[in-house]
Amino acid sequence: LLIATRPTAINLKWALDEMVKALKPLPPESRMAAAYSRAAEIADEDVAINQAIGLNGFEIIQKIAAKKKPGETINILTHCSAGWLATVDWGTATAPVYTAHNAGVPVHVWVDETRPRNQGASLTAFELLGEGVPHTVIADNTGGHLMQHGLVDMCIVGSDRTTRASDVCNKIGTYMKALAARDNDVPFYAALPTSTIDWRISDGVSDIPIEQRSAREVTHISGRAADGAIVE
């Protein structure tokens, strides 16, 4: 039932499989404590992995900064939400941004709103605001225009699932950003832990199930009214 909630993303299945391996051999009375223990281990591992992603991504940002004037801002475009609201801490795509920001490197993030659920506008922007990272929320179709005008130095996205052949499946719209980046010679990176890799499959187009959600998410939008109430 839990796996069915995220058919595209593989991390949830990986974590549940880890829990089954840890709990299945144990008697029922021992499983609750063991479940909490293994979950804590997975959480700690996730933090360490995201920190490593941050350091590796920071090296790339530093190389880009070295080609610019001292103190010039590095403009990074991201799509959807791959921050600490999607992981345990740091995030994947945002980890290099936070690492660079904390090191004093001037970064600015172009945040795709990411329709229809607006994860970029509602989640990524919320995170960046909390961390004090300069950012701008943009319409989903703006990225290519910004790249054409030299306003994007690099793109970093997360991944819902990556095949053994390195096909990356991420939020709808990521492919268009990748094509625009390729056409404009903008470096494009996917940040992910090994738990995102599905070693069973190789073709990202035919082998990865894509989540089909309600059409109402396109025709309706939710927001906060002046009195603070959430309305649709």
Protein topology:
Layout (H helix, E strand, L loop, with lengths): L10 H13 L4 H39 L7 E5 L16 H8 L4 E6 L6 H13 L3 E4 L4 H6 L5 E4 L3 E3 L4 E2 L4 H10 L4 E3 L6 E2 L17 H4 L3 E2 L5 E2 L1
Parallel strand pairs: 1-2, 1-4, 2-3, 4-7, 5-8
Antiparallel strand pairs: 5-6, 9-10
Helix pairs in contact: 1-2, 2-3
Structure overview:
This protein is an alpha/beta fold. It has one domain: Translation initiation factor eif-2b, domain 2 (Rossmann fold). The chain contains seven helices and ten strands. The strands form three sheets. Strands 3-2-1-4-7 form a five-stranded parallel β-sheet, with helices on both faces. Helix 1 runs antiparallel to helix 2 and helix 2 crosses helix 3. The longest helix is centred in the first third of the chain and has 39 residues. The radius of gyration is 19 Å and the shape is globular.
